[in-house]
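This part of the workshop introduces the protein records we will be handling. A record pairs a protein's sequence with a compact description of its fold. Comparing a sequence with its tokens is the quickest way to learn the format. The record below serves as our worked example for the rest of this section:
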Amino acid sequence: MKFGKLDHIDHVDFTLPEDNEFFNVTPSDPVSMKIYTGATSWINPAWKGSLYSEKTKKSDFLRQYSSQFNSIELNGTHYRTPSDATIETWVNDSAEDFKFCPKILQAISHRHDMLTNKELVNNFIVQLSKLGDKLGQCFIQLPNYFKYSSLPYLEKYLAAWPEEMSLAVEVRDEELHQNRDHFHEYLELLSKYNASPCLTDVSGRRDLMHMANTNDKAFVRWVGNGLHKTDFERIKAWVTRFELWAEKGIKEVYFMLHEPENLKTPEIAEYLAGELENIQYIEHRGPRLIKEQPNLFSSL
């Protein structure tokens, strides 16, 4: 993710803000939470020797990826509607507890009226439904020119979106986030249709860390800086926040990890998994990377 990235981050305050006053979740007993973490793609030959074994074929990447991660930010669906054959492969090649988080088709999200082509919208929804139990939280990324005045178009879209398909919404307009009344109206709209506001943790747009939520699911897009020391500090802070959210009633968190060129995502995911490992009421699984084997004959 290049959006919001800075070349130099020494001056950035990565402190997690307190939860927003608009945190519409009902505490539950017993406390429990499921965390799904994912990268932005499973096709990465550079992961051979760390996440994948050296001899892994491209056709086996998803199998190995889903045995390590339990989710994926599915950006491919932003550009094309997946075919039946593609969906069948995804379902068959992924682990039983795996969740796909599809990004809404650009031809829908970036239209002035997001329901202009109803056949396109309906076909996209039908195809996503074929993921069955492996469909996680979908997310719609609205264009930079989506303003407060565009909320009526979003409402039409949310009203037409199937209630059984969990949806997160990412709005990037600065004014909408800075104007308290406008932002709360936006949150009220999401709450009305049981959609979640996406949180984006990136260096150059700290205003997107609004820390508001509208139901018992949360969708976070976390953007690292190549395993800079602050990446690890930020992950520890998020783990603390997850514990608080579990107590507040959040049941599922989709935490999508971005590192430059998707190269070091397995390493930060492994660190996250280690931090979550001993929290009994949080269910999660993450990668355990392949460690280089010592050369037993190196001293001979």
About this structure: The first strand starts at residue 33 and ends at 39. The domain at 33-283 is CATH 3.20.20.410 (TIM Barrel). The beta strands are 33-39, 71-74, 99-102, 138-141, 167-170, 196-197, 199-201, 217-223, 252-258, 282-283. The chain is about 30% helix and 15% strand.
